[in-house]
User: Fold this.
Amino acid sequence: MNSIRGILIDISGTLLIGNKPCEGAVVGLKKLREAGIPFRFCTNTTKENRSSILDKLIDSGIDANKDEIITTLSACRNLIISRKLRPLLILEDDALDDFQGIPTEEPKDAVVVGLSPSNLRYDMLNKAFRILIDNPNAPLIALHKGKYFAESDGLSLGPGPFVSALEYACEGVKAIVIGKPEKSFFESALKDMDLLEKANQVIMIGDDIAQDLGGGAKELGLIRYLVKTGKYRSGDETRDPTINGVFDNFGHKLWGPELNL
Assistant:
């Protein structure tokens, strides 16, 4: 553990629930910052752009910088530009700010789905269905396929069930997934810290055993810690006995003897 080179940290459910910090989050980040270990906030959050995410972290008492935040929105934007697509964006208005300059009038050749409580409704999903069914080459792009997430009043549906509904309706369509647990997402965060070749010396911390600690995180050999906040459910750790540890919250024990902080 003394050879740790960097840390990747989930936000929703690990550091914040809604606009409030999770237990141990503020103290844990403060200790980590003082230790001088580089880290990145790695989030599947798609309701807000990076500036809004930064504001939420700072308002909750968490010291953060915009260039420390890795989101799925920027990766999605790059994919759309590279393929010269005119997509239907099923996103919250705040998240749309990260897609300025992308042609979206009369969308015809792609559908992007993120977490959007105000737009994941029948008429928008039906519009997406028609684009996908009328154009077999149109990609269905899922910013992530999380089943649910934690809010201040309990668990809520994520975008995953809606993406699966479109896959089911449009026979033969398989979504391109951008965010966690995709390997490419973790690789982009590691590259940002110049640690791709030292992945086994990087910690990933999250509240979701599958989205945060499975898939690419496991494949790349990251050191994986589960926290019992956010969407954590009793017994989640038994679903993957290969994870490296389980902690009550982000600030509990993790920054004590494990890292000698």
